[in-house]
Amino acid sequence: RYLAATDKETEQVLLDSMTVIHDFLSETEEQSLLDEIEPYMQRLHYENDHWDDAIVGYRETERKHWRKENKVILQRLKDKAFSSGSTSLLQHVHILDLEKNGYIKAHVDAVRFCGNTIAGVSLLSSCVMRLVNTENKEKYGDILLNRRSLYIMRDAARYNFTHEVLKESESVFRGEIVPRDRRISVICRNEATQT
Ligand code: AKG
To answer: Does any ligand 1 atom lie closer than 6 A to the CB of residue 93?
Structure first.
């Protein structure tokens, strides 16, 4: 089980709107993505001054063009996460590198920048993502994101819950410590719905 929720209602909402597929990537696929990402990432410095004050200890980039073998992996991710009725995918894939002590504070992705679905794979480290109900902070679910897993967050999980990646000292799932190391997430999003 990848979800631990405070109550039954939250559990049901999150089971319906937040999917996690453990071992979505093979070790070879993880390495293949890293081989392409790392040379660029290593030239950047970790930062703490996020524009929205949401992320601590991170560096990030976006990538539109990928090596052939990684295109295949990303296409598999997109096919899994986005239905044919989805708005078009954003062309740029977001790559977020959190240092071992880095973390992401609770936030909801801006509705004017992206649509109903956020899908990401975790490289190098497992972590715990917490989704907190925006209308009642006592209702939340912890999500175990193992290294090489894929998560698909859509609709209620995306709009009605904040999401955050817990810092090392809080990285616990169902009473078990989830060791945090440097973590890179590769995230695909779809276009915002026109309103
Ligand atoms: C975001 O970019 O909004 C995130 O919270 C990233 C989540 C992740 O690293 O998987």
So the answer is: no
